[in-house]
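On clarity, I found the account of how folds are encoded harder to follow than it need be. What matters is that the chain and its backbone geometry are given together, residue for residue. The format is easy to grasp once an entry is in front of the reader. For illustration, here is how one protein appears when written out as sequence plus structure tokens.
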Amino acid sequence: MMKAIAAILLAAGTLVSSAVSGIAQNLTPVKFSLDWTLQGNHAIWGLALKNKDFQANGLNVTMDRGYGSGDTIVKVAAGAYDIGFTDINSLIKFNAENPDRYLIAFYQVFDRTPNSIITLAKSGIKSPADLAGKKIGAPEADSSRLMFSAFAKANKIDPASINWVTIAPNLRETMLVQGQVDAISGFSSTSVFNLISAGVPEKDITVLGYADNGLDLYGSALVATPNYIAKHPDVIKGFVKASIAGTIALLKNPEAGMQAMKEIEPLYDVKLEAARLKFLLDKGVLKSPSFEANGLGYVDPARMALTIKTNSDAYKIAAPAADKVYTTEYLPPSAERMPPK
């Protein structure tokens, strides 16, 4: 009798295992690279993973940290990753310089760029004009560094007057605190909170945001190669839907997003990242008047054209055509993209 029961249980377990295996086999594997180490805004995808939004859209997503927007672009272009989250301004420059292996942004995550110059009060730098003749530290692939020429032009700064110091990403804020550089470039949402976690009082941090100083441009987006998009349109549509679901869930319950990230990375600092997320929300990056009126991921063609032209002028490169930079073809109807009130 016991043997018979055991056989039944074994058969049931085999059936369940086979069913789960079958479901897993039906999911399309997707390699996804972030732009940086796990942060508050990345909880969009932490929740999409936890809530099985990717699975609901037929995807088995592997999410890895990034090492800068420029690095993520190169890796996606090379095929090391299927989809990347990266700064669209860095993308425009890359596409202009690499027309044979350009990428397409298919979902606009950030409505404004958080690209910034960050310094400390003790430096005496209070405005963009004060940067002339100063040392600015940043990784070579940092999007704010790549975009600095546009910032310089908007603020009548001679780019040649800046002494750039190339430093490893993990040493950027440390070198600023130690006084080895006068300022650093980076996403304000990254560097401000790295400085706070290093013990610098927030009142002692000065942020010269690009969006607040003449460059109200689009920020980071989801990108892929045109070849991948053409071959996997359902993957792109599913990834967008899951990202929207994750964003809405995060806006409704930021704490749940932080906990989801903690489950992915035990060393994730929930308190710090919750503050970072609030910073982005307050800056109108993730939830903006435009997104509230038109739906998450909305792109104003005129503003994107300005974003492209600004980059083209700054880098003295031929502006890539708009359809070689972004598409809104894979967005669901606006009614399905509205952020919570």
